[in-house]
Amino acid sequence: MRCRGAQKLLSRRVDGAVSSVDAAALDSHLVGCAACRLAAVRLEQAWHALGALEEGISAPDDWARIEAAAEARRWRWTPSWLGWPLAPLRPAAAGVLAAMVALGTTGGVLLSRAALAPQRAGSIESSLFAETLGELPWGSPAAGLAGVFDNSTAREEDR
Amino acid sequence: MRELDAELMARAGEGERAAWKTLYVRHRDRVFRTALRFLAEEPAARDVTQEVFLSLFAHAKSYRPTGNFLSYLRRVTVNRCMNVRASAHETHRVQSADAVLRDVADQAPDPEARLERDQTAAAVRAVIAALPARQRMAVILSRFEGLSYEEIAAALECSISSVESLLFRARQGLARALSGA
Across the interface, do B179 and A52 touch by the CB < 8 Å criterion? Predict the structure, then answer.
């Protein structure tokens, strides 16, 4: 047995994790190796010295502090899990959110259809767009675009 | 005990605060002790204890009692300790070790014995503090918590041979430092 292997076994022997075969091999190595005998003594002493820290340790009662921390973090957790007082408001909050999404979507669709309306002169959207904006002092953009379309059609017919 | 802890976790998962508190009362010393030995600083150990129980209860609903509850608790504690050590607390760790020692010394019978014990404990604590984090945690779990290699491997999330290696190197470091070699 080499010294490195012997010292690994010494470490395991402290924990009582050495088989009888390994223990016999270790003992025979220690008989002939002064360096490992010294290492064995130092290791035992060091492990024993740790006993100086074996004081009885009791945790302070921080329950109130922990509860306060949990309260402060309640938004990071699922509210219903701890039965927070705000939990009943969740369906209402979900309803408001859904309404906002629905309004946003509807508004977006209406605006995009209205914006495209001038490009389709003569369509129902165009008429609506023209009715809405036609009273402006500079005239209806739909009418202007309709004119462009009409002219281009006329030129094609000329050819 | 295992069944009781699993039952308490299940009840905590359903929102029962009394179950949460019972778990805290049952295990706070265990968590605090490991954290204090590892960090050698009482405020940091209290913070770790708090974080462990907050984390424990935040995940109580998804907890499945497939293994030993204590192994689970130990793993959470070890992870929290390692995280703290990597953060700002590390710089204050060794400075405040004396504060912990004062409480120990006060229990000694006479001033001379108190002083001697104080000095020995301070020396040992300084040597442990100088160990790399994983070696130190392996020593704490082995020497003070009396865990087997298998249990330490589960807590540190490594193999049993890694635990043997960690303890071997830690003991060599301790022996070298304490013998002055």
Answer: no
